[in-house]
Amino acid sequence: MKKITLIVFLHILTARAAIAQKQEIRLFTSDITNFWNAYDHITVTKDSARQYAYMDSLFLKKATPGLKALMQVREYTAKSYIDAINNYPMFWRSVRPNTLKADGFAKVIDQGIARFKKLYPELKPAKIYFTIGALRTGGTTLDSLVLIGAEVALGDKQTVTTEFPRSLSHLRTYFDSEPMKSMAFNNIHEYVHTQQKTTVANTLLGQSVLEGVAEFLAVQVSGQASPTPAVAYGKRNDVRIRQAFAAQLFNPFTGFWLYSNQENEFHVRDLGYYVGYAICEKYYEKAADKKQAIREMIRLDYNDEAALSRFVEQSGYFDESMQSIKKRFETSRPAVVAIGPFSNGSSQVAPSTTKLTVTFSEAMDEKSRNFDLGPLGEDNLMRVKKILGYAEDGRSLSFEVELKPDRHYQLLLGEGFRNKAGLSMRPYLIDFKTAAR
Predict the structure, then answer these.
(1) What tens digit of pLDDT does each residue of 125-142 get?
(2) Distance (Å, rounded) from C-alpha 3 to C-alpha 6?
(3) Full-model pTM
(4) pLDDT tens digit sequence for 31-59
(5) What is the distance between the alpha carbons of residues 152 and 155, in angstroms, rounded to a whole number?
(6) What is the DSSP string of 219-230?
(7) Is 321 exposed, middle or buried (0-12, 13-18, 19+ CB in 10 A)?
(8) Domains and their CATH numbers in the chain
(9) How does residue 22 score in pLDDT terms, banded at 50, 70 and 90?
(10) Which of 179, 188, 374, 383 has the fewest CB atoms within 10 Å, measured from its CB?
(11) How far is CA 39 from CA 71, 76, 102, 132, 151, in A?
């Protein structure tokens, strides 16, 4: 009898262990509860000191690792939250009921992750945090953490945006796409990012493929079409988009193609998602071994130009070689054509010179620039005292300098200088020596 009882007991323990393993906690939502508790206290007082005290004690000090990570990635502060709460009361009231439904997504997300593991058996575990941000993201990642900004990710057509400034106008289109209905899809997209080598690439092409991999694999895992408006638009306008993208794909800046409300010829944001998605789709279609193709997408080093170029070229998405595209890009970049009042490389520059003018090959974007150290380092840096501004035609920039006699100076004009179309300038080193007296 004791033996039978022991066997039954062991069966119970095994069954409980199996259930516990099956119900592994992947989703954390306590930040949402804490936020609304803080919100209810903050909105009943006009005293800013008390508002900040409530935000700190009821929300920030109780932050999960997910909220801390989200604040780090999106540079949120207590002020970010207080300003958003005070400026958009109708928005918060409209989105509140949806955010409180976050726990209900646990099962469908778990099922999606299980399907992902079948396609990619090497899948590494990641924790998912549904938290509250200040309207800068619906989803992002940090290391092995999936970070969902529920105030954005769980919006819908009923979410009020009439209080928003122009910088948040894109959220109207996003909420109209009913992102709450695509929650499982969006979570897989972000989960893919936790498996990749990086979430930041150093070119427009690299960042677009990085996002495209996540979007394409979310489609494969979920079995549903991408809900991202740019993907649907891209499929209808592929030729125009491909041609425009090819002219900038080696650019170190993403411009209007990703994460931007910047006006563009297509009047659609985030078209880099589509280009990256289309490249992955072509690559996958050509692959004989589909699982291996998925491994290659996830493990690709998006900052390795040679590896990235091979991947894109093998997809056959562009009509010409990556080498040809790179060559055309380099020749199309703006450049410095002269400096004055002396020539670059001069060795007897008057130390009394106080103004330097740089002339470019074309009109430049006056808001974009960057200066950096030359090869000789900080000891030889020519310091810019004051930016005097661009000429009326935008093709020359003047700035004040302070020189000393018998010195070797350098200043690197970097890729932060861009033309009106957003193409980065070829770096240019100003290098000269001043006369002894």
Answers:
(1) 999 999 999 999 999 999
(2) 5
(3) 0.84
(4) 999 999 999 999 999 999 999 999 999 99
(5) 5
(6) HHHH-S----HH
(7) exposed
(8) 16-168 (no CATH), 196-332 (no CATH), 336-433 (2.60.40.1220)
(9) very low
(10) 383
(11) 17, 16, 18, 11, 13
Distance in angstroms (rounded) separating the CA atoms of residues 379 and 371: 15
- pLDDT classification of 437: cutoffs 50, 70, 90: confident
The residue among 415, 190, 209 whose CA lies nearest residue 300 is 209
* E-only strand ranges, 287-407: 336-340, 355-360, 371-372, 384-390, 396-401
Give the Cα separation of 368 and 365 in Å (integer).
Answer: 6
Q: Whole-angstrom Cα distance, residue 412 to residue 309?
A: 28
Residue type, 378: E
**Token pair of 164 as six digits:** 């928003």
Please tell me the predicted confidence (pLDDT) of residue 26: 78
The encoded tokens of residue 247 equal: 């002219």
